[in-house]
Amino acid sequence: MSSHLVMFLSASALFVGLAGAARAQTGTADLDAIEVLADRGDTARAREGLDAWLSANGGQASRAELTHAWFLRGRLMSDADSAEVEYLRAAIDGDGPFASRARLRLGQLQLAQGDLRRAAAYLEQLRADDPEGALVPVSWVWTARVAESRGDAEIACEAWARARSSLKPADPARVEAERSRSRCEEPARQPGEVVTYTVQLGAFGTEQAAVRLRDGAADIGVAVRVEPPSGGVRVYRVRAGRFGSRDSADMLARRFQVEGFDAIVVPEEP
Q1: CB-based contacts of 160: which residues, under 8 Å, 6+ apart?
Q2: Count of helices and strands (H, E) across the chain
Q3: Burial per residue of 50-66, b for 16 or more beta-carbon CB atoms within 10 angstroms, e otherwise
Q4: Separation of alpha carbons 270 and 193, rounded Å
Q5: 20 contact partners, CB below 8 Å, separation of at least 6
Q6: What percentage of the chain exceeds 70 in pLDDT?
């Protein structure tokens, strides 16, 4: 994710005569200072400062400033639904870098909530609306994570490649992209060697029992499959996803565990 602006105004200087100060200092400096408070976890003062800024400047602020303000309102909301409303406003009605930041947040929010289709759509929209923007490289990281959560290794590998080629060497996400993409490029191994991981929800002696679990687990929005017996063992396995890294498989397993499923990560054989 992109770093926040670093301009700092002390809380005391900002909020002494808050309404008067807001009127005297129109522009982005006040919003940057409010965002610093949000970064530090001082949400009460950040909300107070944002409300005062909007009251004093909302009628004369530029579109870019309003986009920043709407983005901040999204950050400061206490529930995901309200945050999504504000981020959507910034993404649809706004412009500039904070419109792109809002689209990125929307993608992250939907991934956290398990709506992988909408998460992917928001990230694609970010790149379509701002193809040369500073957030395009990190958007590919999140697209790869969404694809991995869906068990789509092909799209994930392509996204990791794009992220690796566009992220700056000093960006921490570059390390993750290089590691993940390198797994995609590993040559085929000998039979019996582990190449992927999957999440297993259960194993049953009858196909009917496996199908019942598959259908119930599919409600969380992830493709779940029943694998037929193999290797002479009459067991039907219920599984989801295929991943090149254990960490990615663990993320999906935790999603199922939160929903009450006995999900475990197991290796797959080629």
Answers
A1: 140, 141, 144, 177, 180, 181, 184
A2: 13, 4
A3: bbbbbebbeeebeeebb
A4: 7
A5: none
A6: 83
How high does pLDDT run on average in the chain?
A: 80
Find all residues with CB under 8 Å of 124, minimum gap 6, and list them.
Answer: 143
Contact 223, 252 (CB under 8 A): no
Tokens of 209: 């029992």
pLDDT at 145 (0 to 100): 84
CA–CA separation, 113 vs 130, rounded Å? 25
- Where residue 24 falls among pLDDT bands split at 50, 70, 90? very low
Structural domains of the chain ordered from first start: 11-184 (1.25.40.10), 196-268 (3.30.70.1070)
| H/E run at residue 76 | helix 63-76
* Predicted confidence (pLDDT) per residue in 139-195, tens digit: 999 998 888 777 777 788 888 888 888 888 888 888 888 877 766 765 544 544 445
